[in-house]
């Protein structure tokens, strides 16, 4: 994963100027966060990312010229370790799955409060996959009809932990939810990463969504 600067450098991508101003107001006064650029469509987003190399891109989906899904795909092709967080009003399963397949590290909704957004930004750049509660529940209950998912030889305990990783819970929260110790959670997460062939929780969550491991 790419190193994070101090302050965290943010690129805002949204075609709604009012939303951009709202993000400006919410983030500019926050400690350890700096807005370094803004883009109003996917083409601008890709150009701005290349020029600015931000730590995190806040990416809308519905935009003119090139949408956020395609812009995310192009950014990840340019820099596979880039961090793109979907911040959108789109709540449908197809948009969520396509955004994750494009390489987004999380998916949250625009109607969340400012503190949640700040916490999400910090969690995302720390390497966690973050999903709005509504989004996580949709992913966990939607299922993946058609071909069965690949068999990664996960135990039932590892599957439960993976589902909670996708839901954005920390190790401490997972331990509380499953009534196990934090060291046991760390053990399961370490095994999960090895079995899935990934290096981070973010990659594990994205793979789980993409391949239907949390149905």
Structure description:
There is one protein chain. With 215 residues, this protein is an alpha/beta fold. It has 2 domains: 8-133, Response regulator (Rossmann fold, 3-Layer(aba) Sandwich), CATH 3.40.50.2300; 143-211, Winged helix-like DNA-binding domain superfamily/Winged helix DNA-binding domain (Arc Repressor Mutant, subunit A). The protein has 10 helices and 6 strands, in the order βαβαβαβαβαβααααα. It has a 6-stranded parallel sheet, sandwiched between helices. α2 packs parallel to α3 and α7 packs across α10. The protein is globular and about 45 Å long.
Brief account:
The protein has 215 residues and is α/β, with parallel strands linked by helices. The protein folds into two domains: 8-133, 3-Layer(aba) Sandwich (Rossmann fold); 143-211, Winged helix-like DNA-binding domain superfamily/Winged helix DNA-binding domain (Arc Repressor Mutant, subunit A).
Helix and strand layout, with pairings?
Layout: E1 8-13, H1 17-28, E2 33-39, H2 42-52, E3 56-59, H3 68-78, E4 84-88, H4 93-102, E5 106-109, H5 114-125, E6 130-131, H6 133-142, H7 156-166, H8 171-178, H9 182-196, H10 201-211
Parallel strand pairs: 1-2, 1-3, 3-4, 4-5, 5-6
Helix pairs in contact: 2-3, 3-4, 7-9, 7-10, 8-9
């Amino acid at each position: 994963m790419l190193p994070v600067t101090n302050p965290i450098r943010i690129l805002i991508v949204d075609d709604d100027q009012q939303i951009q101003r709202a993000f400006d107001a919410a983030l500019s006064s926050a400690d350890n966060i700096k807005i370094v650029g803004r883009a109003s469509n996917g083409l601008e987003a890709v150009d701005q990312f290349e020029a600015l190399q931000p730590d995190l891109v806040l990416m809308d989906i519905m935009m003119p010229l090139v949408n956020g899904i395609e812009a995310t795909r192009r950014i990840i092709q340019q820099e596979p370790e880039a961090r793109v967080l979907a911040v959108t009003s789109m709540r449908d399963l197809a948009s969520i799955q396509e955004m994750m397949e494009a390489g987004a590290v999380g998916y949250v909704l625009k109607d969340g409060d400012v503190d949640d957004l700040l916490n999400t930004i910090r969690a995302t750049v720390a390497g966690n996959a973050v999903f709005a509660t509504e989004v996580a529940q949709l992913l966990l209950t939607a299922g993946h009809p058609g071909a069965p998912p690949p068999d990664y030889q996960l135990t039932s305990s590892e599957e439960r932990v993976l589902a909670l990783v996708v839901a954005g819970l920390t190790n401490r929260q997972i331990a509380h939810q499953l009534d196990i110790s934090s060291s046991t959670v760390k053990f399961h997460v370490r095994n999960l990463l090895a079995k899935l062939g990934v290096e981070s929780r973010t990659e594990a969550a994205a793979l789980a969504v993409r391949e239907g491991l949390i149905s």
